[in-house]
Specification:
It contains 6 helices and 7 strands, in the order αβαβααββαβββα. The protein is an alpha/beta fold. It has a 7-stranded mixed β-sheet, with helices on both faces. The longest helix has 20 residues.
Length: about 200
């Protein structure tokens, strides 16, 4: 019994994770990370300047209130581990990112330039990055790969170095497919798995 207790003491959280965007996917990623037991991150820093609206069903199911900031809601849900910052990360705020792993959960083609800048910033600081590569689809297989070599929406981003991990359906908005909770759940699961692999390599 003492041996098991000693082994348990060796399994503890390590490293910090930054989640950029706390919408339908971001809140899932945050909640999945929080649920990791005997490991996972020490802290999860969440950035989002948006507020919960009527259509943010997942936030409302979890107890979020309409009009409440999404990042601050995540913090309220589990303040011992989550730090919610009620602002969007912009090119002027890149210096705020100092975590071990950055996860992008931003939506829309207009975020590509910002994503490129964050990836370049993280590359220069040796920070690991994970992002999405299409969230559309009804029953698509979720694929994980390196953003430099993966087909799909990530091709529109100017990725110049390997190492940026992407997870998604590789489908585009032009494909005319919905975004389902099942797809988002599976993408979140695979993002968290990749994140845990990165954290486990930390000394």
């Amino acid at each position: 019994m003492d041996e098991i207790t000693n082994l348990e003491k060796k399994l503890f959280p390590k490293g910090n994770v930054c989640v950029v965007g706390c919408g339908r996917l971001g809140i899932r990623v945050v909640m999945d990370l929080v649920e990791v037991h005997r490991g996972g991150p020490e802290k999860i820093i969440v950035y989002d300047g948006a507020t919960i609206d009527y259509n943010d069903i997942i936030h409302r199911k979890l107890g979020g209130k309409i009009g409440e900031n999404k990042a601050k809601f995540a913090e309220r849900f589990y303040p011992e581990k989550i730090i919610g910052v009620d602002k969007h990360i912009t090119t002027e705020h890149l210096n705020l990112i100092n975590e071990d792993v950055v996860i992008f959960c931003m939506a829309g083609g207009n975020t590509l330039k910002l994503r490129e800048e964050i990836i370049n910033y993280c590359n220069n600081k040796n920070i690991k990055t994970i992002g999405t590569n299409g969230v559309f689809g009804i029953d698509e297989k979720i694929k994980t790969g390196d953003g430099l070599y993966s087909p799909g929406p990530i091709e529109y981003a100017n990725i110049t170095k390997p190492g940026h991990i992407v997870v998604g359906t590789e489908r585009y908005i032009k494909d005319g497919l919905p975004i389902t909770p099942y797809t988002l759940n599976e993408i979140s699961k695979k993002i968290v798995i990749e994140c845990l692999k990165m954290l486990n390599k930390l000394k």
